[in-house]
Amino acid sequence: MKIYLNGDLVAKEDAKISVFDHGLLYGDGVFEGIRLYNGCVFKLEEHLERLEYSAKAILLDLPLKREQFKKAVCDTCLANDLQNGYVRLVVTRGPGHLGLTPDGCGPGNVIIIADDIQLYPEELYKNGLKIISVPTRRINASALPPAIKSLNYLNNILAKIEAKKVGYQEALMLNDKGEIAECTGDNVFIISKGVIFTPPLDAGSLRGITRGAVIDLAEELGFPCREQALTRYDLWTADECFLTGTAAEVIPCVEVDHREVGNGVPGAMTQQLIDLFRQKVLTDGEHLTQ
Ligand code: PMP
Question: Which of 25, 29, 32, 94 has its CB 3.0 to 4.6 Å from that of 151, i.e. a possible disulfide?
Answer without folding.
Answer: 29
